[in-house]
Amino acid sequence: xxxxxxxxxxxxxxxxxxxxxxxxxxxxxxxxxxxxxxxxxxxxxxxxxxxxxxxxxxxxxxxxxxxxxxxxxxxxxxxxxxxxxxxxxxxxxxxxxxxxxxxxxxxxxxxxxxxxxxxxxxxx
Length: 124
Prior knowledge:
5 helices; mainly alpha
């Protein structure tokens, strides 16, 4: 059991990080803390993808002169997915932070329960 955990240590850490981020998003009332939890979840997914694409002892997929054996290189697709995911994650985080700033300017708070109370008052 311990050997399997050590062998899959990156996947185990990714699952733990994802759980921490998910719990943070579910339990926190502060919108900034929810964005931080979302970023932790993103990082966990990136770690998992990067660890699945890495093969120990193999090199980067840069083909040298005369080398045609594809089994000597790691798979570049997970790396591309991670880079694309990072770009999307940064964009979503930036949009979320801008939205939180506008919410704070309008309502004077970023606590979810206070926002819901103020929204009810405006509705009545």
